[in-house]
TrEMBL record:
Protein name: Uncharacterized protein
Length: 50
């Protein structure tokens, strides 16, 4: 199990070029499907949503 926090999500998203952002932090086993609260095209646009 991986404990995923918001800051770690941002770091991981940047490192792999992901654009899915989760608003809630929690524990994910990696088996369940994670539905993002927001999907952006460019990680630099994130500042518009924070």
């Amino acid at each position: 199990m991986i404990n995923v926090e918001f800051e770690n999500i941002l770091k991981q998203a940047k490192s792999v070029g992901m654009t899915a952002i989760l608003k809630e932090k929690g524990t994910y086993t990696g088996e369940e499907e994670i539905v993002p609260d927001l999907v952006i095209k460019n990680i630099s646009d994130l500042k518009l949503y924070i």
